[in-house]
Design brief:
Blueprint lengths: L20 H10 L1 H16 L5 E2 L2 H11 L3 H13 L5 H7 L1 E2 L2 H10 L5 E5 L11 E2 L3 E5 L27 H16 L8 H13 L5 H11 L12 H6 L1 H10 L14 E3 L2 E3 L25 H6 L4
Antiparallel strand pairs: 1-2, 3-5, 4-5, 6-7
Helix pairs in contact: 1-2, 7-8, 7-9, 9-11
Length: 307
């Protein structure tokens, strides 16, 4: 037997249980003592082993003492409960065990979220053809078990991944990093850009990084002879972000990183490239309303012609 918990914390009890003929017979003969004994026995079964209770003399004495009904009276009630098939007669007579097919069905239903349920083979009253049966025990592996004929198959909840659109900062920064890498290595393996965009999303949303600073870091690290061979994904960029930023800011000669205009601003479906020189946005990509060409940011340069 495994060390895994076998008993239950709760079990279902029908509101019309006293309408069951078997229970009604017990109640008719023994009154409230009979009803109490059966319900208390159900509680003992489900909380102890989960699907059976050993009815030894010691257990009989303890049980009768706990519920406040005489030893003799409790045994009369249990014997009649076996006779009227509340508990299985064959198992009771052979092993002095109180269980039933219905008890085992309820137990399996209550433990359906457990990865594995172990039942003693000798006590099993259900169809175990689809269970993994060893010499002594029945191991009901949930993926393979077909014991409950009407068991409900729980639909797995698949979390849908966010899709980053072509105008999103997340995807465009990912494409920007990839374009820089491919300038040096055209044969670089095509990555999953949606996964890369997710890492950028984490940088912006969770790490509170500014898209403009991310862009500058991409430019700088892909110019640096050491970091250009180490930052080959947005995940790596995120992991080394603080170190890269410190290194970039520590460089005295700032001419290494040319000032870049702000990232593309999105207004509706239009794309606008902003520059401080002209203090305005393009009406069409990279043009002022008067048709004057604006300086393009690095992202737009690399993406030009792909729109």
């Amino acid at each position: 037997m495994s060390n895994q918990k076998t008993g239950l914390d709760y079990f279902p009890l029908s509101v019309d249980i006293d309408s069951d003929d078997k229970i009604a017979l017990i109640q008719a003969k023994y009154g409230i003592e009979g009803f109490t004994t059966i319900i208390k026995m159900f509680i003992k079964i489900y909380s102890d082993k989960g699907y059976y209770y050993e009815w030894t003399e010691e257990k009989q004495l303890l049980f009768s003492s706990k519920i406040g009904i005489s030893f003799e009276r409790v045994n009369e009630i249990i014997n009649d409960a076996v006779k009227w098939k509340i508990f299985d007669k064959d198992i009771f007579e052979k092993y002095q065990i109180l269980t039933s097919k219905r008890i085992q069905e309820i137990y399996l239903e209550a433990t359906k979220r457990r990865k594995k349920v172990e039942i003693l083979k000798a006590y099993l009253l259900l169809n175990g053809n689809n269970a993994n049966i060893s010499n002594q025990n029945v191991y009901i592996i949930k993926e393979n078990a077909g014991i409950l004929k009407q068991s409900k198959v729980k639909k797995s909840k698949v979390k849908k991944s966010k899709i980053y659109g072509p105008n999103s900062y997340e995807l465009r920064l990912s494409q920007f990093l990839l374009s820089k890498i491919k300038k040096r290595n055209p044969d670089h393996k095509e990555p999953d850009l949606q996964k890369w965009a997710h890492d950028v999303d984490l940088m912006i949303r969770i790490d509170k990084r500014e898209p403009l600073i991310i862009e500058k870091l991409i430019i700088w690290c892909q110019q640096d002879s050491f970091w250009q061979n180490n930052i080959l994904s947005t995940a790596k960029l995120r992991a080394q972000y603080d170190q890269l930023l410190l290194k970039m800011n520590s460089i005295k000669d700032k001419t290494e990183v040319k000032p870049e205009p702000d990232l593309i601003k999105l207004t509706g479906k239009a794309r606008h490239c902003f520059t401080t020189e002209h203090s305005g946005y393009c009406e069409n990509p990279h043009y002022t309303g008067s048709g004057v060409m604006l300086k393009m940011c690095e992202i737009c340069k690399d993406m030009k012609g792909k729109w």
